[in-house]
Amino acid sequence: MKARTRAAVIAGLAAVLTVWPGSAMSDTVADQGIRYVALGDSRAAGPYLDAAALLDGCARADAGYPNLVARSLQVVSFTNVACTGARTEHLTSVPQETTTGPMPPQIEALAPDTDLVTVSIGGNDVGWSGLVSSCYTDLPGGDAHCRTDPGTTSRMTAALDALGPKVTGALTAVRQRAPRARVLLVGHGGVYGNRACWPNIPTSDADAVFVTDFFTRMNRVLAASAAAAGAEFVDVTVGTEGHDACAPSEQRWYEGRQSLSLARPLHPTAAGMRHMAQRVLDAVQRNADR
């Protein structure tokens, strides 16, 4: 990274207060000239979390983690083009159709002087909600045994095998478009834990563990893609134990199939977005000397 950018990130992060879910983001960070662009899908957009998401064709909320990161760093410029439903091709080459019209490929928001890029992508490419639906049961206490079903396991493996090259290609294009930026790929997971809670997570406990392992595998693919493209991977599952979709509503960072908050089902709550923002800020601070 260029010396100016590295110094800007170090100086900006030095004043960032620790931000845990439920606490206020820092308003005291001096503007250090960081130019930040957020790319990605609904895990960055934050559909339905606030009024801004209801008015935007991409369902992009002010409560999404990119906005929280931008406010904590008090960046000199911030562009958020994350869009619900986005796939890797919507980052690089294909306009995405939304309720307010087509959105250009997100990569067009980048510039040569961009300093920081976050990317949340991959979930729609693999169609994870469809993959795990074979684990669901119609009645409480049931067990679909998807963990031992050859069809389910082969579909999951095929989807993850196809994902790696797509993400590597997208991240490579991002780095070419913004050559001096730090690029952070934000991972998946958090909705499922090691237990079920029908009908919110309508699986057996054993299948819930199996689904959680699927996201662990997905994060390995994402981490490998980030490394191959010269980007950095941010694991947002760290610290989420006890905050999955089966947790009490006041402790929940991710909603299940039946949302008890403004968050879209199977997406982060406002508290989950604060957790994700903190993980991104931790990554920037931890590696600011690169």
Structure characterization notes:
This is SGNH/GDSL hydrolase family protein. It comes from Rhodococcus sacchari. Keywords: Hydrolase. With 290 residues, this protein is an alpha/beta fold. The chain has one domain (3-129, 166-191, 226-286): SGNH hydrolase (Rossmann fold, 3-Layer(aba) Sandwich). It contains ten helices and seven strands. The chain has helices spanning 3-14, 42-45, 51-55, 65-73, 88-92, 123-126, 128-132, 150-177, 205-229, 270-286; strands at residues 35-40, 77-80, 96-98, 101-103, 116-120, 182-186, 232-234. The protein has a five-stranded parallel beta sheet with strand order 2-1-5-6-7, sandwiched between helices. The chain has a two-stranded antiparallel sheet with strand order 3-4. The model is unreliable at 1-31 (pLDDT under 50).
Protein traits:
Rossmann fold; five-stranded parallel sheet; disordered N terminus; two-stranded antiparallel sheet; alpha/beta; 290 residues; 7 strands
At CATH level 2, the architecture is 3-Layer(aba) Sandwich
Sum up the overall morphology in one term. Answer: globular
SS field, number of helical segments: 10
Report the span from N to C terminus: 7 Å
The CATH topology turns out to be: Rossmann fold
Following the backbone from N to C, one meets helices and strands in this order, namely HEHHHEHEEEHHHEHEH
Arithmetic mean of pLDDT: 89
Total beta strands: 7
Which structural class best describes the helix and strand composition? Answer: alpha/beta
The percent range for helix content is: 25-40%
Return Rg in Å.
Answer: 18 Å
Keywords: Hydrolase
Protein name: SGNH/GDSL hydrolase family protein
